[in-house]
Specification:
The complex is a heterodimer of chains A (about 300) and B (about 100).
Chain A (H helix, E strand, L loop, with lengths): L12 H23 L3 H21 L3 H26 L14 H22 L16 H9 L4 H22 L10 H11 L36 H6 L8 H24 L1 H14 L1 H13 L1
Chain B lengths: L3 H20 L3 H26 L3 H31 L13
The chains are: A mainly alpha (about 300), B mainly alpha (about 100).
Chain lengths: ~300, ~100
């Protein structure tokens, strides 16, 4: 593990290839973040860039930070971003009216100048030799970090804990809305419901007796038509109601037809006195036969 | 390849993030650009840690991540609150302290 980061002033060819390929993708992702019109696309591009940065951390011998980057940034923070984007409105695009004249070009120029300054500064710095983390990571990366956090940086670590608690409380205070009116009691709500003439009892359950009990199947009224009240308003609004009032009778009719075909065929094959007896069995001597005949009439 | 290239990449990403903060109006996208800048700084810290051969840079990056997490929580709460009162997430609309 530590040999990965052992390279001194130059890196291995594999790392170079990885850097140039993934570095290009990271820059493209960053550009997509600021150029995409929709906030969702920006968030996804940024998540991609962050995953690539996690790979770079791993390549640089920061194994703990690489994992934390994926867990905390792409796992928690970017999902929080997506959550807020969905809350605030996916379609909320930027307004294209310029409040300050020529602001875009000025901003782009400033960004370009700043970038040139920064990169030229790094180029002029005397950072020619790199020591590598082989020695520092010798006892394990996580162990090395833990030793530093709990000795040299223990005060900063404590302050970080205070910061996190403050942030959690702050978020709760900011998003909390005080109730402006008193909540209605159960009695008041019941009286109101009766006064408004709404349904007082609970709504009837969905499903038809013994055959279908899924939530999208409406119950049947005595005359065989479906009852809209049994399905939730959301499914009703989407039009996702499955009407099964005709299904069982249709199945029965199909069964009847099949058995009729089978009986006729059986009669042809056997012939003789058995074939003579078959129709009489259908005409009411068998109780099941009578029921089927009645069902057939209903279908018709 | 010299590990200094990681610093150039970090500088480039930071510049892109800064330009995004100046260019975009949507508060959420501006916030994402700030995250991009913080990540670029983390990359610079990590590569400095490698160049100097000690873990202090990684500790700094770790603290940056914690601060970024706290910042995201508060920032997004503020954005949601502003959106609730103004029905817009544009930074131009929130020009007054009070509605």
């Amino acid at each position: 593990m530590s040999t990965l980061a052992a390279a001194a002033s130059t890196t291995s060819t594999g790392e170079a290839v990885q850097f140039w390929v993934l570095g290009t993708v990271a820059v493209i992702g960053a550009l997509a973040t600021i150029l995409m019109k929709k906030a969702v696309h920006s968030a996804l591009s940024l998540a991609g860039t962050m995953i690539i940065l996690a790979v770079f951390y791993l390549a640089n011998g920061a194994y703990f930070l690489g994992v934390v980057q994926i867990v905390v940034y792409t796992g928690a923070i970017m999902m929080l971003f997506l959550f807020v984007v969905m809350l605030v409105g996916v379609t909320a695009a930027d307004s294209l009216t310029e409040t300050i004249k020529g602001q875009r070009w000025l901003a782009a120029g400033c960004g370009l100048g700043f970038g040139i300054l920064l990169i030229a500064g790094i180029g002029n710095a005397s950072l020619k030799n790199s020591e590598g983390l082989a020695k520092a990571n010798a006892g394990g990366n996580v162990e090395g970090l833990a030793e530093l956090i709990f000795t040299k940086y223990v005060f900063a670590f404590e302050i970080t804990g205070a910061l996190l608690i403050t942030a959690a409380v702050g978020a709760m205070v900011l998003t909390h809305r005080e109730r402006t009116e008193r909540a209605k009691t159960q009695r008041e709500r019941a009286l109101l419901r009766i006064r408004e003439g709404k349904q007082i009892t609970p709504l009837p359950a969905p499903g038809v007796y013994a055959r279908h009990n899924a939530v999208d199947i409406p119950g049947l009224l005595p005359d065989g038509s479906i009852s809209e009240k049994t399905v939730s308003a959301t499914l009703r609004g989407r039009g996702q109601i499955r009407d099964v009032s005709g299904t069982s009778l249709a199945e029965l009719a199909a069964l009847e037809q099949r058995s009729e075909e089978w009986l006729e065929r059986g009669g042809d094959a056997e012939g003789g006195p058995t074939a003579q007896r078959t129709p009489s069995a259908r005409n009411g001597t068998h109780p099941g036969g009578a029921g089927e005949a009645r069902a057939e009439e209903e279908v018709k | 390849m010299n590990p200094i290239n990681y610093l150039y990449l970090a500088a480039l990403l930071f510049t892109i993030g800064a330009a995004g903060v100046l260019l975009r109006r949507n508060a959420i996208v501006v916030f994402m650009c700030i995250e991009l800048m913080l990540n670029a700084c983390n990359l610079a810290f990590v590569s400095f840690s490698r160049m100097h051969g000690n873990l202090d840079g990684q500790i700094m990056a770790f603290f940056t991540m914690v601060v970024a997490a706290a910042e995201v929580v508060i920032g997004l709460a503020i954005i949601v609150m502003i959106f609730r009162s103004r029905h817009s997430a544009s930074v131009d609309d929130a020009s007054l302290m009070k509605l």
